[in-house]
UniProtKB/TrEMBL annotation:
It comes from Steccherinum ochraceum. This is BTB domain-containing protein. Residues 20-30 have a biased composition (Low complexity). Residues 1-33 are annotated as: Disordered. Residues 43-109 form the BTB domain. Gene3D superfamilies: Potassium Channel Kv1.1, Chain A.
């Protein structure tokens, strides 16, 4: 049997042949990308963000993302950039955001991320929502929405944080079981996320929290631990300030019995109740009159309101609590109107069974 002659090697004096065989491999090497944390030995595609490369599997990306699935069906040119025999795909994302997403999809040690009760830093949840939306990775987007819903919920009785059930300070975290927030003014970031990721259900509670934080944080914005700076647009800043005025009017109505020192119509001990109201009012004036006049926390739970600090007859206590809770519920239902959030369905309708 005759042995066929070996295939000819490209002539070294043929520049076109040399470029055809090696340009793709050399292009990746010459760029001096930094190898990222997620680098699979059996990977078959290299994703590059901010000059950091990650080697992963097309099949897994395609399974989770329709965008990547469509991207990989596009034929590559002969001189496409390659690294270790894998096509190089450049993405316009930060390397940290991409790393968070690839950890979630490829690192089995992070499977607990999606377990109920696990708590993730806001920066990871933010990346999951933004890239999950951009690349249509439903698992990441849905999990991020579930987590943020714990702190920016659709129901008033679920809206539990340092501004509704406790005295806030600049170091207090919003309490929840899903996301680690460095500061309460993370609401500024959530407003921006809601705008870009089509999650309008977070806007009313996020605007409420923005309206009750101090002016310095509201105007300067918030920087997360990855260095991303979040700031309200001029239009949203105006919405926030106008909405704050509406909240202040509600607070005045909630405190009307206290400010006027007037007992309820069914009071059984008018003198005692009115003296108690006047004493508490005087105490508040002595403590911080300026804070009272600028108060906007209209959703404070009744257990933390002025009513809990005054000894009243049963009729006065019942009547004032009824009035307070009615105004509180009305304020919650009208948040979208108070902050001029056109097109936002609020309050969110109860799901039908």
């Amino acid at each position: 049997m005759t042995t066929p002659p070996p295939a000819k090697r490209p002539r070294t004096d043929d520049p076109d042949a040399l470029e055809s065989s090696s340009s793709g491999q050399e292009s990746a090497r010459s760029n001096n990308y930094e190898r990222g944390e997620v680098w699979l030995d059996d990977g078959n595609v290299v994703l590059v963000a901010e000059r950091t490369a990650f080697k992963v599997l097309k099949s897994i990306l395609s399974l989770h993302s329709e965008v990547f699935r469509d991207m990989f069906t596009i034929p590559q040119p002969a001189d496409a950039e390659m690294w270790e025999g894998c096509a190089v795909v450049h993405l316009q994302d930060s390397k940290k955001d991409l790393l968070y997403v690839l950890r979630a999809l490829f690192d089995t040690r992070n499977a607990a991320w999606f377990a109920y009760g696990s708590k993730l830093p806001f920066t990871i949840v933010s990346a999951m929502l933004r890239l999950g939306s951009k690349y249509q990775i439903a698992q990441l987007r849905d999990d991020a929405i579930r987590r943020l819903s714990e702190s920016f919920p659709p129901r008033l009785n679920q809206f539990l944080n340092c501004y509704t059930v406790g005295m806030p300070s600049e170091d207090v975290e919003i309490q929840n079981n899903a996301v680690q927030f460095e500061l309460a003014d993370v609401c500024i970031a959530v407003i921006n996320l809601s705008r870009t990721c089509d999650t309008p259900q977070f806007l009313p509670p996020a605007f409420y929290l923005s309206a009750v934080i101090d002016n310095e944080n509201l105007l300067s914005g918030w920087t997360d631990r990855d260095g991303n700076h979040w700031q309200l647009s001029p239009q949203d800043l105006l919405r926030c300030l106008n909405g704050r005025g509406a909240l202040q009017n509600v607070v005045v109505k909630q405190q009307r019995p206290l400010l006027t020192g007037t007992a309820s119509t069914r009071c059984t001990s008018v003198r005692a109740c009115e003296e108690a109201l006047e004493d508490r009012r005087d105490d508040l004036y002595d403590e911080d009159l300026d804070d009272i006049s600028h108060q906007a926390k209209a959703l404070t739970d009744i257990s933390c309101s002025w009513i809990s600090d005054v000894t009243l007859c049963a009729f006065c206590e019942k009547e004032f609590k009824k009035q307070y809770n009615a105004l509180r519920s009305e304020t919650w239902d009208e948040l979208a109107d108070s902050f001029d959030l056109d097109g936002v369905e609020w309050p969110v309708k109860e799901p039908t069974s």
